[in-house]
Amino acid sequence: MSRPAVVFDGVWKKFKRGERHDSLRDLIPAAAARLLGRSDPAAAENLTDKEFWAVHDVSFEVNPGEALGIIGPNGAGKSTILKLLSRILRPTRGRCEVRGRAGALIEVAAGFHPDLTGRENVYLQGAIMGMKRAEIGRKFDEIVQFAGVGEFIDTPVKRYSSGMNARLGFAIAAHLDPDVLLIDEVLSVGDAAFQDRCVARMRELIGRGIPIVFISHNLPAILDLCTRAIVINHGTVAFDGAPAAAIQEYRLVPWTKTDRSGAGAAASPIHIARTELLNDRGDSAAVFQSGGELRIRVAYEASKPVQHASIAIDIHRGDGVYCAGINTMMDKRDLGVMSGPGYVDLIIPRLNLLPGCYLVSVGILDATGGRVYDLHTSAYPFSVLSDRRDLGVIYLDREWAHHVPPAAPAERTLVAAGKDGS
Amino acid sequence: MTLLAQFKEMFSEQVEYRELLYQMTLRDLLLRYKQTVMGFGWAVFMPLVNTAVFSVIFTRVAKIETPVPYPLFAFCGFLFWNFFASSLRFSVLSLTSNSNLVTKVYFPREIFPFSAVLVCLVDLAVGSVVLVGMMVYYGVAVTPALLFLPVVLAVLLAFTAGLALLLAMSNLYYRDIKYLFEVAITVWMFATSVVYPVESVGGNLGQLLAMNPMTQLIEACRSVLLYGRLPPAGPFAVTAVLSLFVLFAGWQSFHRAEFTFAENI
């Protein structure tokens, strides 16, 4: 129990940039160089100008019962980490260990052959994933049912739709019974109903205490399923901690460079200097309680006095759902003259959002809303925690009332008659 | 890691993944059966056509002496040669044509060339039915020497598998190998006693040709099947040792390199 199921200890992985030497023509000069002693053995550990570190001193552990999410921008090294874990790649330096049978859901239909039927492919793909024939035979009906391919199981998979193909692949993988489950962005396949089944299956495995490493760009899924998350950026671990906090950290990565220093802002008489999300104690925070206070403080800097400007604030959920659009103009709140530095607070006394990660966009517009002085789109993330069990986006204040209809007259007579007869 | 520990790891991996080897072999056999009209007929058809062509050449155009009737001599040669040559032909491409699996799923990569060899072994079994028919037709007597056939086959299998591993691996790094292979295998066939007995070539060239391990192996097959005698002990022992060496050297270098396959394919 105390031993971690996955150990990733100071792992480095080197990749080559540019084209690979593919033919014998290139071998001869390379072999000559080696013979002349121009390449020393230490070179294997260092970089030449054509190489780079795809994974750069990454360490983490996953304990039994933990579900680790890995998030980060494209090309950050997430998939490389998963390939190292599943032994497809071997680290240049460091140690990488998985205890027990690792079920890798990297490309779930990789072993499918288009000319073979669904049935034949289930046995083939199952064997590729390390299942025994008898085991596949036992689970065969369950797999077919999970995939929902039904009567097409004896049709060659080249006749399948791409969704059916992926569903059958995932169904096999889902029945693997691994000791450790490695998942790389497979939830994006299939329709909504199938995705729900996948999430349910993952939850079941997590519930059984099977450690999971889960790579996804689907942030709500990370927040929902994982007990911990790490952010990978440029091949290194940028953050390791609670999923909600990791998502914030990840959200901050790209925007620090682009949106916040918009080029248009320089010409504007007024720009957003800073935006802070404050809790009920007035502290800057990233995590808020559902039903608690959220105060959004927009600090501005005006190079010359601006009259009747308005401030607009939008809140989107991490998956893009538009939750709220608020501005001073619609609220008939005239900010008067804004000059020099100053700030405006938006106070939300009861934040009735349900748990999830959200993004705040802030803009300063002119009186008509026609001119945008400054805009920070989806620049400020926060997450909401709660013990409320509701589903959806918002918490609705409510109460229930149960009105029992008066019993029907006929029934009453019958009961009375019964009483009489006894 | 010592060599012994490495061999132990290599073997235990194959034992662990034996079902996958079976499934991959089954896949290729099924595919052939589905994608072609003749299916396993091809396993018989190719050596038969070759035998017919060379029978015309060597019995009508340029007569040569063979210990058994020429068609039997040639068909037996083609059957075992085709096993060897097709095994290697499929193995050369076995890694590169499965690049999707090599880069996406982990399992011992030896499975690819091994299953290619096993598919050809099935072809050999199918073709041998025709060989038995021809042996009956020409009245070849069954002798105790036939008991030695499994040993000969094991050595042939070891030699083929060793080369299959080396070729599959080389073609992954250098795609020139598949073209080189086609040239080499054609030359190699005529340097082997497939269509003519090597004893008929005299002088230095004859001695050179006799050193070819495939000549030893094909002649050993003919010896136990058709001539009713054991292959010459000395040369056969040398061939057996060489074959085992090729197998283990090929397997070990393949095994050491297989972790770099995914990033080099």
> Helix-strand pattern of chain A, N to C?
EHEEHEEHHHEHEHEEHEEEEEEEEH
The strand count of chain A comes to 17
- Note the run of SSEs of chain B as H and E: HHHHHHHHHHHH
Oligomer: heterodimer
Count of β-strands of chain B: 0
Q: Spans of chain B of 5+ residues with little confidence (pLDDT < 50)? A: none
Distance between the termini of chain A: 66 Å
Q: Specify the helix fraction band of chain A.
A: 25-40%
Considering residues with a beta carbon less than 8 A from a beta carbon on another chain, report the largest interface and each chain's count. Answer: A-B, 30 and 27 residues
Envelope shape of chain B: globular
Strand order, sheet with most strands of chain A: 5-6-7-3-8-9
Characterization of this structure:
The complex is a heterodimer of chains A (422) and B (265). With 422 residues, chain A is α/β, with parallel strands linked by helices. In chain A, 26% of the residues lie in helices and 32% in strands. Chain A has helices spanning 24-35, 78-85, 118-128, 133-147, 162-174, 192-207, 219-225, 243-255, 409-421, and strands at residues 6-16, 51-62, 67-71, 93-98, 102-105, 180-184, 212-215, 228-233, 236-241, 270-278, 287-289, 294-307, 310-317, 322-327, 337-348, 356-365, 372-385. In chain A, a hairpin with a 4-residue loop joins strand 13 and strand 14 (322-327). In chain A, helix 3 crosses helix 5 and helix 4 packs across helix 5 (162-174). The relative contact order of chain A is 0.10. Mean pLDDT of chain A is 82; it is low at 255-265 and 418-422. By secondary structure, chain B is mainly alpha-helical. Helices cover 76% and strands 0% of the residues of chain B. Chain B is globular and about 55 Å long. Chain B contains 12 helices and no strands. Chain A binds chain B through residues 15-16, 20, 22-24, 27, 83, 86-90, 104, 106-107, 110-111, 113, 115-116, 120, 123-124, 127-130, 132-133, and chain B through 17, 19-20, 22-24, 26-27, 30-31, 34-35, 100-101, 103-107, 174-176, 259-260, 262-264.
